[in-house]
Write a structure and sequence with these properties.
about 70 residues; mainly beta; four-stranded antiparallel sheet
């Protein structure tokens, strides 16, 4: 099984979380919405599979490169 770690593309704040640990996700589905540079950025799944870990919550601040989610599939 391939493991894909989805990382924050820039420093910002998590506004909404759509993915759930233990649930399947399809390629292109939203994982979360984050705010960076006063813009809302949708973070989408680069691959389909099972969300095995979710490292974020609404209101959380993240730095570029921080892991947001792990998808195995």
């Amino acid at each position: 099984m391939a493991k894909e770690i989805v990382e924050a593309p820039a420093p910002g704040k998590i506004l909404r979380v759509y993915a759930e640990a233990g649930k399947p996700i399809a390629e292109g589905d939203r994982i979360c919405i984050m705010e960076a540079l006063k813009m809302e950025l949708p973070i989408v799944a680069p691959v389909g599979g099972m969300v095995t870990a979710l490292h974020i919550a609404p209101g959380q601040s993240v730095e570029a490169g921080d892991p947001l989610a792990v998808i195995e599939g």
